[in-house]
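Methods — Computational structure assignment.
A single polypeptide chain was analysed. Its primary sequence is given first, followed by the predicted tertiary structure written as structure tokens.
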Amino acid sequence: MSIPSDLTAALGALPEDPRFRLLEGWTEHPDGILSFKFEAQLSAAPTDYVPEWTSWHLTLEGSLPDPDIDIFPDATDGIAATFQHQDNNVVILPGCVWRQGKPCLSRPAAVFKRADWAGEPRGLAGRIIWLIGRLFDWIDAAAENRLVEEGDPLELPSFPAPRTHGVLGFCETLNDLNWWESAPSTWGFATILKVPGADGTSVLSEFMDPQRHRFRRMEWSPAIPLNPNRIDAIWMVLPALVVVEPWQAPTTWAELNGLCKEVEVELGSILVEAGARLRHFQRPKHAKPVDLLIGFPMAERVGDPPERFHWIAIRNVALSTRDQIRKGFRSRAEDRRSWDLEFAMSARPIEWRKTANWAPDQLRKRGEAEDEVRSKSMLIIGAGSLGSAVAENLLRMGVTNMGILDAETLEVGNLSRHQLTIADTGKPKAVSMAAMLNLAAPDASVKALPLVFPPDNPKEIDELDVWDVIVDCSGSDDVLRAMRILPWKRERVFVTLAMTWEAKSLFAYTASETAFPAVDAIERFAAVSPAPEEERIGEMEGIGCWHPIFPATADDVNLWAAVGSKFVRRAVIERQKMAALFTQSEDGSVDRIDA
């Protein structure tokens, strides 16, 4: 193999250090990865898990001069335990000379893939030297049990990579921890629902006691169809997270069984009883392996008291079925119970399943609207290009209780700037938008109202009165006048958003009153938004279709949807009468003036 000069120079640039021994130079592997092997010495006292000298492989993957650089423990002479801030260290891939337990040596900002944020040197040699120095710090901290300190975020142990994609979502809020502490049972059965169209993604839906009586349901979007009282999993509760020291998820049923015994939970007894009940509930031809859900209280930070419940999951718990037969055994219930107990204590590997807490505050860690905004129910009047984009913005920020009111159907011409797709053409905009938004978030609760506004049916009028915030995106003065005369029964926040001609500006108006002040809003809009010149209205829907169209490109609509969404948030928080005109400059910047 011909080693590039950059790599030779990088290896030669390593400074002399008594804690570092180079064992092998650059080696090429069949998958295109390059590596060199070295030993690292502790400067702390050795432990059962970290001896004085350990062997490591520094690997390069990707193109020079900026490859991905990682360090892995040697398969034979490296550390064999799994610590905090380390990938699961049990797995050794066939033919690989290192374990997969890569320690986390980069700084948190490195996940954003910006070199200036990560604090690493830019040159190849500098990065290698920096990472080896970080490894010296890491092994010392591992030996001295100071990889995490009080106040650090508490991470679950790294689980072996699941064989399949997808995740099992659950919903546990801050208020649910106390509920579980007084739950009617410590184990039982559960229902898991598949998310339509997703690749292996499901949600935990219902909890049942051992007698199959439902006592809790997690609420999800109506886009996820219910299948009540079906058994897809066994659940059990532990008093705390259990790990193989120092911080490793159990990899076999025997390991898990031993950890459960340490916290006085009999895993074998639970699986034996659950298996017996499953054989009673399930018909033989429909019997299938179930998942095992393990729940426990968990703190957000090291040293803090637990604040919410968390679930981890094991796939394919193959308990005995009613028609199962083993050679040399009778077909008796006692034998099957014995086989299930044997399974719980076996060296059979555990097949972990990825889980995630989809409670609303956890779903939107990447960005959410204010609590006061998210807690409001909102009715969007007008599901055109502006209304559909505003609705999606608000939903993704956490306004999940929403109604979409529009009587029109989607036409192909709408697609140039609408959130919907060609699959929705010919369908009511309100129905399609509600369906799309209910699939956009697992906690969405969006209702379609395919009505002409204002409705004349008393029942439909009452339906409109339940919403806390009314957001008009129709661009119609007739709608504003109808909002004024509708018999609202209480004060609420009204917002109207309207693009001016050619979408050069956005007019935004809000008031918190018992009736919408339409006259004031219309007069202010007219004062700042001149009408289009009649002779300039020349663009038609198409040849032979003499219907004028409103000119606006998708980027303009999305810009005003973003500005309008921020205006809605401010309107809900401040609850004052405001009117503003937002105008776009040629360079895309936006100016605001009071209207």
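Note: The CA atoms of residues 10 and 165 lie 38 Å apart.
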